Amino acid sequence: MTNTVDASFNEEVTAKAAESGANASARFRERMTTSGSRAGVVDTERVNYLASKAVKALNDIILEDRVSYEEYNALKAWLIRVGEDGEWPLFLDVWLEHSVEEVANEHREGSKGTIEGPYYIEGSPELPWNGTIPMREDEPGTPMVFSGQVRAVDGTPLSGATLELWHADDLGFYSQFAPGLPEWNLRGTWIADDQGRFEIHSLQPAPYQIPTDGACGQLIEAAGWHAWRPAHLHFKVSAPGYQLITTQLYFPGDPHNDDDIASAVKPELMLDPQPVEGGVAVKYDFVLDPEA
Ligand code: MBD
Ligand code: FE
């Protein structure tokens, strides 16, 4: 068990926000062109309605709060920088996605979902029901065994369910966004057994700060906020005939469980890790809603 990082890691500790931002923007664009849920297909009526409402909300703020040219130009400069740093995915996922998720999942009866965030990658390596996540030989962190079962809301065990897990390394970096990490580091896809059971071997994640050296960091500093998210595991869990759930799980006692910058913590998503020989063991069952 260790939280220290030795010099053998060739990871760039000074990973630049612009780098992960540009990667996140490129990945998002790619996914939108290769997936069914293409961007740019909202009908005219709805765009007219929503865009008018959004523009009016901003104008109301300007008038109510007597916004000055100085403030308007500060906003303009900042918006330009968000684009230059490629941080629109980060900005939107941190400050708005939680409301979209709330709307999207309000009728689910199974496990709670939460936001996906900007760092998901499709197609991580497939592993058996009890496989170990891809990691470096000397990956720092506390070993974690994460086990449970995938079931339907009616209790049926879901044979062959799949679980995708991705999380940051001990320094808070996600593979394929920060430089110097193996392609699939700390990303994997588990195929559950014939009873929907799984036993994931990974590491307990560390508290996480969103990049502070880009436009989002500039806003956080200018407003006197903080950049922390509590330590978290990202999951996508699915089975044929059932709705895929995107969620995150958290660890009790994290100082940022109550003030997550991304507003993505829910009480149902709190784990109960138990110390075991050489690390921690966690149990969590996922419950899926049938396809509508
Ligand atoms: C993350 O790792 C994350 O999960 C979210 C929601 C936003 C920024 C970074
Ligand atoms: Fe994350």
From TrEMBL:
Gene3D superfamilies, per database record: Aromatic compound dioxygenase, Catechol 1,2-dioxygenase multimerisation domain-like
Sorted UniProt keywords: Dioxygenase, Iron, Metal-binding, Oxidoreductase
Gene field: catA
Similarity annotation: Belongs to the intradiol ring-cleavage dioxygenase family.
Transmembrane segments: none
NCBIfam families, per the entry: catachol_actin
Entry's Gene Ontology BP terms: catechol-containing compound metabolic process
InterPro entries from the UniProt entry: 1_2-CTD_multi_dom, Catechol_dOase_N, Cchol_dOase_actb, Intradiol_dOase_C, Intradiol_dOase_core, Intradiol_RC_Dioxygenase
PROSITE patterns to which the protein is assigned, alphabetical: INTRADIOL_DIOXYGENAS
Protein name per Swiss-Prot or TrEMBL: Catechol 1,2-dioxygenase
